[in-house]
Amino acid sequence: MTTAGGLDTKSRMVAIVLSIMAAVVLGGLVVLSTGANPLSVYREIITGAVAGRGLGETLTRAVPLVGMALAAAIALRAGLVNLGGDGQMLVGGLAAALVALYLPAPGVLRAVLALLAAMCAGGLYAWIAAILQLSLAIPFLIASLLLSYIARGLTSYLVRYPLRDPSTGMPETYRVATAARLPSSILELPISWGMVIMAGVAIAVVVNDRHGVNGFEWRMTGLNARFAQYSGTNLQRQTRRVASLSGALAGLVGALLILGQQYRFTDGALLAPGYTWSGLMAAVLAMASPIATIITSIFFSALQVGGFSMERALGLPAVLTWVLQALIILCLAARPIFLRKR
Q: Rounded to an integer, what distance in angstroms lies between the CA atom of residue 79 and that of residue 281?
């Protein structure tokens, strides 16, 4: 017997697959307009994403992408739009770097405390946006977005002046000691601690969404906030809690990038790949379903890695993969219109 949640997830996945198929056709027309062969382009994208080193690059890129997508999905599930992922990731990454650099503790403990500090910093920063909405009626969408600009300016100033490593010509902190870093592999397997941590977070989010009381309340609030309030849900407390969890996850992503890949906080380095907006697109495409969000994030990661491979092999710009992502979102957005006409 299929549960309502199972039907919900199944319908979402069908919608995603149909949107991807329609976008592939439209993307092929875009490729044809450049004079290239769409079949060759798609073949190179798939090969570059899953063959050889491409698979490892896809999984590595998927770690922050899944994290930022789940951060957006948690908020969307409860009726909030978190556009402040950049700021929450920045304050989390900087907090992780500072703890890893200056806390007098053993390396492993320092790494654990750095992760916790990043989650606290990101969660607190999103909580401020929630308080602005509840106290001053500033929409969470606007407050979180504007706070990101403040975080950008503040972190940029800190790493350019008081926290800057003078031995380099870059606006960045000192390098994190090897003992405080997250190992890039486990038992000589191409699996990093970042992948393990994010897998654990993803499982926790899915279990809470499908079986937890909080997950049920979040879904009800997202569908009908007034009904959820009448049924006994404390909307103000829920808003603070959801915002904090969303921000904590974004902060964790910043810490994983600092401790597992970059090993120092460099001005602009966390924002350059565009994880926040790719994650938001993945969450929107998945209609905030955690399972679908995870799958969509991995798909987007493969699409981006394959795009770089396609650029190297065929000489076409990797931006074509971003066009394909946008087409997928547009096709999904148009789906209700087509169904209504049908």
A: 16
